[in-house]
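Weekly structure sync, notes
Attendees: PL, DS, HV (note-taker this week)

Item 1: RNA polymerase sigma factor
DS walked through the input record. Source organism listed as Deinococcus multiflagellatus. Sequence as pasted into the shared doc:
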Amino acid sequence: MRDERAFEALVTRHAPGVHRLAAVTVGPGAADDVVQEVFIAVHRHLKSFRHDAAFSTWLHRVTLNACHKALAARQSLPLAEGPEPAAPHDPARAGEQAQVRERLSRALATLPREQREAIALRELSGLDYAEIAQITGAELGTVKSRIARARAALREWLLAAGVTP
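Item 1 (cont.): predicted structure, written out as tokens:
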């Protein structure tokens, strides 16, 4: 019973960040499924977690692995629908936010996988460069380069799409 409560607390604490990373990597429509897969895997393998790295590092790696699995599965399916609409608090504002999210999602999809992962881990998960290097297995300088290139490519794509800062 105590383990169940601890796991529930773990899910409550980490699910929003896992969902943000999954939404950027696989799209908002598939993110819920990825989150479920991540926490099934975490539950299954938590007792074998060796503490060689921080828990958050391990969790991000599990999340990226689940995202890659979902993307590979999607390759054989027809194209998915566009992003889900924003919650309708203020219809005009929600529509604008949905458009920006859709454009950002499209822009992120144009990035090479390594750049998309690095920028998502930095900007959405708030990880520092060293943590990203550990998760991805890349050198620190490579991580910095990927993030810089991703930011430049996103800026260029979004400006071309009419999104201004």
